[in-house]
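User: Second chain of the day. Same drill as before.
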Amino acid sequence: MKILMYSVRDDEQPAIKAWAQRNQATVDTFDQDLSLATVERAKGYDGIVIVQHAKIDSDQVYQKLHGFGIKQISLRSAGYDVVDLAVAQANDLIITNVPAYSPRSVAEYALTQTMRLIRNLELFDERTAHHDFRWGGLMAHEVHTLTIGIIGAGRIGGTVARLFHALGAKVIATDPVENPELAEFVTYMDQASLLKTADVVTLHTQLLPTTTHLIGAEQFTQMKPTAFLINASRGPVVDTPALVAALKNKQIAGAAIDVIEDEQEFNNRDLTKTKITNPNVLALQAMPNVIFTPHIAFYTNMAVQNMVDISLDDTKSILETGQAQHPVK
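Assistant: Same format as last time:
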């Protein structure tokens, strides 16, 4: 069994080598995305695994993979909008993803950033960096006094709910499907009611046509001026210019942003010698009440291990049986 993995980082290599040894397979790695320029590398392999920084750039990629005899594309990520599912299906390619590589990793990120925001730690960092050690105006809140609003109470959102409930916070949520396992500590309500009620709004929804710009100018007017927004889901779930405007106009108190529209321009890249021109990034970074991170909410040892193992397990399963545990439909 020969598998090629695209866009592999150094930190993934130990898990990849361990999986290959356990399964007596050959797993080769490449440090670039799957594209028309790189698809020829897949020739001679039985299967491929990818994680994309940008959408697959041509229908010919799928056609070439089909011509090579490849039957699948396994993504080692939850998001699959980088793949044209209709074109993949037309070329007999089964697409899989990793829907829950580590709900705990993202949930702990949401908890961490909530604690930083409600303790005004990012503002104290700004002050002390300039040798201003005053406390004035930055009295904190305790988490058990807050109402945490979760938009998207699936695997990750449900884990967020459990963490905050354990700390004594009131937890409210909105989701098309109400999970009976969360009933004892989550109150479900519609999105507008949640936005009006929550002290912290944390987003954990998939990126779908119905969730693109789910939070925009209208939604920010519904939030409390003392409320915080956390986005550790997908960038386009939030209308970025509307977020910048809401922060500038003090419609909300602050935000922790791990994902943003057009993030493929800069995430996991060293741009210390490059002038960044993205106006939304520059605006968010200039605001002392914004915590800005480069899509690292997932980035823990357990998550990386699971992303590698689950994607390769699905690849192996398709090659051996024609089926996988995590197909995207």
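The domain at 2-101+301-321 is CATH 3.40.50.720 (Rossmann fold).

User: Great, on to the next one.
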